[in-house]
Design the sequence.
């Protein structure tokens, strides 16, 4: 799996994410000489067991996160958040699970937008929307340093690039900033980062709902 950093937009207190911020962020990619290079999409699905026998709930994990990534179209990843286990399967597992009806989708998040080439870096800027609504749930930035496949070796270069990116965003005086979670250095680090972004989006929106 590619070594990348995934950052998510964290609004300032009292502000919310909107399409204007998404447009401004996309313009930042072009302002630092990023060349638009097509669209991308990743999907994260929260799955719950479809229990026919309610007396035996312990036979299935209480929830699974299923993730499909654009650079691995033939793979599908499952994350068990409790024991922190990540497994890899063939993408056909989605069809099998649908036929078996062992799990049902509670909600799906779509991460989609444009990707940009910038020298040795590839950027993906995208919105986050749910399967239940077209309303904007969040904004993500995915950064990859192409010459290095080791996360440990690429971290310093990625960090320096993100500093430049943050300065470009800061110049636009937007009501928020991009946050980065230190990635899991395992083979499945990218899938774990997307799961973390989902958790942060849900947590921040719950906090916003309480304030309102």
Sequence:
């Amino acid at each position: 799996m590619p070594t990348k950093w995934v950052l998510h937009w964290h609004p300032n207190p009292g502000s919310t994410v909107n399409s204007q911020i998404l447009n401004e962020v996309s313009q930042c990619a072009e302002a630092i000489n990023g060349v638009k290079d097509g669209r991308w999409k990743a999907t994260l699905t929260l799955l719950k067991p479809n229990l026919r026998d309610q007396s035996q709930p312990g036979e299935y994990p209480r929830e699974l996160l299923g993730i499909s990534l654009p650079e691995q179209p033939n793979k599908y990843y499952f994350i068990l958040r409790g024991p922190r286990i990540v497994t890899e399967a063939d993408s056909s597992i989605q069809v099998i699970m649908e036929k078996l009806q062992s799990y049902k989708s509670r909600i799906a998040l779509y991460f989609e937008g444009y990707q940009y080439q910038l020298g040795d870096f590839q950027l993906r800027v995208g919105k986050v929307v749910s399967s239940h609504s077209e309303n904007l749930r969040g904004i993500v930035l995915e950064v990859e340093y192409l010459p290095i496949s080791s996360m440990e070796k690429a971290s310093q270069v990625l960090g320096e690039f993100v500093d430049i990116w943050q300065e470009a965003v800061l110049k636009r005086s937007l009501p928020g900033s991009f946050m980065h979670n230190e990635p899991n250095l395992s083979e499945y680090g990218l899938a774990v980062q997307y799961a973390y972004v989902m958790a942060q989006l849900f947590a921040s929106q719950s906090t916003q709902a309480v304030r309102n």
